[in-house]
Fold:
Amino acid sequence: MNVCKVRFYDNTRHGPESTGRQRFTCGCYWRIVARRTKDEAVETRNQILDAAERVFSERGVSRTSLADIAEAASVTRGAIYWHFKDKADLFCEMVARVTMPMEDAPCRINPALEADPLAGVRAMLTGILQRTSGDVQARRVFHIVFHKCEYVDEMEPVRKRFSEMQAGCLSRLEQGLKQAQKLGQLPPGLDVHRAALGLHALVDGLISNWAMDPETMPPESDAGRVIDVFLDGILHAPPRTALKPARRAHKTPRGKAAKPASRRRRA
Structure:
């Protein structure tokens, strides 16, 4: 049971025999005020992050100052320094709050563990493209990270995060294709590693292009069809053949004319 510990008095008189009305409030009043202040701080922080995202996308990270972000967010530079140590810290926090398509739970499935690994590969890659198509913020942050940023020491965590994200996607993709080949879903002579590299490059390139120019983005329903074109190609890929070493041309000493083939044989 809460006990009121703080008393407030007012001078409003009620009735001829009243000397004043005591108005009581408990400690929860101060908790409400503190919570309201905290909520306002969170709102200001998000306001700054939203503004940074817009300005970084328009001008690039290196050409954007904290004064630019403060103006776009309608706050003071002091408000920015209250929430963030510097521009690099602001940049890292802006990226950290966004879940990229390759990090989304449905897109992190391991196709090799599925009963139908080839269908699992298709589902994973289709999910990544659909998530990209439907998430404007993820595309904007991807565009900033890969096209509007020069990596310096302070931003190393962002580079490391994205490198690990891409490496993990490629690894799961290759595992899925290997399992599909083992089950006879892919030709035995297929170079699985190169096929995985090609699929990964396809998806990574599409995300990059869509981030730069959303007008090139097809309808979300076409994501699976794009993947199917590539998968159909590797299903009918010819077996690997070893490359024959190129024949070395006969070298003629400088200043001497080459002998006819018949004379070389007789010699």
Observations:
- The mean pLDDT is 80.
- The beta strands are 6-10, 21-25.
